[in-house]
Amino acid sequence: FGYPAIPASTQTLCRYAAFLSKSLKFNSIKQYLNIVRHPLCPVQALFNAAQHVITSDINGPAFVYRHNGQIRPLTSEQFIDRVKECLRLAGIDTSDIASHSFRRGGATFCFKIGLSPDAIKLLGDWRSHCYQNYISNDVTTRYTIIQ
After folding, report:
1. Tens digits of per-residue pLDDT, 24-44?
2. What InterPro entries does the database record attribute to this sequence (predicted)?
C-alpha cells in the first residue's frame, strides 16, 4: 500500500490491523501484530539478548557467551564464523560474506527506510559520507530515485 514498513508508525500498524480484521479474528490479529513488533526491532532484540546473559561488568562488552562456566566476549570473527556456518548449513555460498557485509547491509537498510545521512553516519560510526559507496540499490530503488 506504499507505507514504510520500518519503522512502522502507529498509524501504519492501525491500518494493518484494520486490513487484517477483514479476514481474521481478534486473537489472530494480536499475533500478527506481535510478529511485526519483535523480529524487526534491533533495540528490542538487544534488550531481549541482555536479559539472557548474566554478567557482572555493566561496562563490559555487549555480546558475550559462556564457555566452561566463564563469560567471554564474542568477537567479530566468532560472530562471522557462526553466521557462515548457519548459511552453509542452509546451502548458501559464504565466499562473499565478511564482517564488512554487515556494514554495507546496514547502510543500505538505513538508506532504504529513509534515515537521514547524519543518522546513517551515526549508526555506522562513519565520520565522512563514505557510507554512500556501500549502499546497494536495486533497479526499483534507482527508478524511484530518478522519478
Report:
1. 888 888 777 776 656 456 666
2. DNA_brk_join_enz, Integrase-like_cat_sf, Phage_Integrase-like_Recomb
